[in-house]
Every structure is written in structure tokens, then in C-alpha cells.
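It is worth pausing here to work through a concrete case rather than discussing structure prediction in the abstract. The textbook approach is simple: state the sequence, then state the predicted structure, then interpret. We follow exactly that order.
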Amino acid sequence: MSRWGSGDGPGASVPWVHLVNAVLLVGLWAWSWAVFPAPPAHLPEPIGPGGPLEAAPSLGKWLALPITAAALSLGSYGLVPLIRRTRHFNLPTATPITEFRPEDQARIRHLTARYLLWMNAILIGGLWLLQIHQRAAVLDPSPGPERVPALAILYLVVAPAIASLFFLSTITHLAREAEQRARRP
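Step two, the predicted structure:
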């Protein structure tokens, strides 16, 4: 494992980020599919302003979050090869990145791709929380402020913000080190 904790780097034996993404995505699909067809028989018939409401969402509504997770994953994994092939980054440093050594550029590209894939895992985790909330709403369809998925929304805001701050501090540190190495003869 390198200094930057890249256990999923080019020479790593275990690609953790890929494993985590796969487990979260497959797990979300399996769980969503497993709990959809079995709403409890004792569900009350909720009454809304327009009459009786549906107690359980349709299959399309139920699978919207897993489909969103799959689309996010496809987009993230589609961008990774583009990031890794990119040769020029515009980082706010005194030395243009094109003057950085190739190994420093590769390290920055690798960190950027890894950040994108870990962010994908964070977002799939948030979609899990929303799906769990959706299942809870089927089991107890009473309206009210407690029906707002506050934990999922908080997670979907705070976790990516913290991950982004960590990424920005790490990438800044890497760029500064690369800049110092670029200045050396």
C-alpha cells in the first residue's frame, strides 16, 4: 500500500473500491427486488386529499433508486478511462502540470479516478438509505415530518462534502510535492 492509501492502485492485488461498488450495487438491487413483492397484508388504506392512496409504490417507482445507482456506476466507470488517459490537468499551481514528472501526473490521475469511484460508493450508500426509507414508508404510510428521510439527505450532503474536502487537501498536497520535484534539476 502506498503512502496515499491506494490499496487499489495499478499494482495492488485487491481493488477495494471496485469490490465495495459491486457489493453495494448488487446488494441494492437484490434487496430492492427481495422486499418489493412482499408488502405486509395488514397495510391500512391511507386516505389522502384525492381519496385512497396506493399503499405500496409500483415496480417502476420501487426500482428507480437501483436504476439510478446503476446509471451512476456506469457514468463513473465510463469516466475512469478518460481520466486515466488525460495527459494535462489544470491545477492551480505555479508550475503547469505538463511540467510535472510522468509518475506525478499518473499519481494525480489515479487519485482523481479513485476519488470518483469512492464517491460513487458513497452515493450508492445514500441511495440504500433512501430505499430503506421508502420501504419503511410502505410499512407505515402515515404522513408527517417523520416521513422525511432526514438521515439519507444528511448523509448524501455531508459524506460527499467530507470526501471532497479530503480529496482536495490530498490533491493539493500531491501537486505541491510534484511542483517541488519538477523544480529540482
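Step three, interpretation. Residues 57 and 96 are 53 Å apart (CA to CA). Confidence is low (pLDDT under 50) at residues 1-8, 10-14.
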